[in-house]
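This section describes the prediction task in plain terms. A model, or a person checking by hand, is given the sequence of a single protein chain and must write out its three-dimensional structure as a string of tokens. No templates, partner chains or ligands are provided. The sample shown here is typical of the held-out split.
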Amino acid sequence: MYTTTSILGMPHKDWLALRKTGLGGSDAGAICGLNPYTSSIHVYKDKVSEDVEDSDNESMRQGRDLEDYVAKRFMKATGLKVRRSNMMYRSTAHPCMIADVDRLIVGEDAGLECKTASAYNADKWKDDKIPAHYLAQCYHYMAVTGKKAWYIAVVILGKEFKYAKIERDEEIISNLISIEEKFWKDHVEAKVMPDPDGTDVCDEILDEYFHIAKKEQAVELLGFDEKLRRREEVIALKDKLETEQKQIEQEIKLFMQNSEIAFSDNYRVSWSNVDTARIDTKRLKEEQPELYKEFLKVTTSRRFSVKAA
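The expected answer:
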């Protein structure tokens, strides 16, 4: 069972605020660690933040603009009819789970998720594969709406159109519900950030929460010696790999000499001219000290460093 909220004509900012009140289909894959483009840290930041930010980009806009086209291609390919729901669904049994679905299938207990993909990502859909985070999204919608199946249709730009039907799987749905409820209770409601995952978003959240260091405050570092030793190994390996990378690049540059482009059947290398304009801050400070002070902007950040005891 579920409750619904009409989103027809709802201001975009209000819709974004409504999405913060639960976990949607696009959040499911991130929480499960299946989405290569985002993470549970990002979901956490979005849900606990009071700011209603529109993290829109060109890819997302194209996906929305082409949604109707994908739906029409699906109807033509399958003979099925679809309709918009114009509703935000919320599970009554699991209120932290919400769903804003693309389309519902007319005359069938199922829905439709519309996707677009670039030709560069075509391999993720080959051999009837469906990216794991999109599967999680469809199972999430089935969990919230109770539907027996969910279709997914994709237009791979410039290449092909594909669709698939995903049947309801109670075991998968049960596991997904457990993961989402635990995430909502242990992290969103408790205001406890998920474990760090090495992403830039995680750095941003840590800097935001712990922006200013308290002078002379020290804590005993317990349980991190092994991780710090591993960090030293990673740095050494990184330095070695970066040196190897530079050597390969230098060999190619030597081969290219004054040529801007080099190519083979598999690669295209560019070594082009780039003009960069920078303000000479040292000279500005010496010759125009008042102007320098007027435009000087001081920011505070924290620097992380490790030294052997």
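For orientation: The chain has two domains: 2-206, 225-295.
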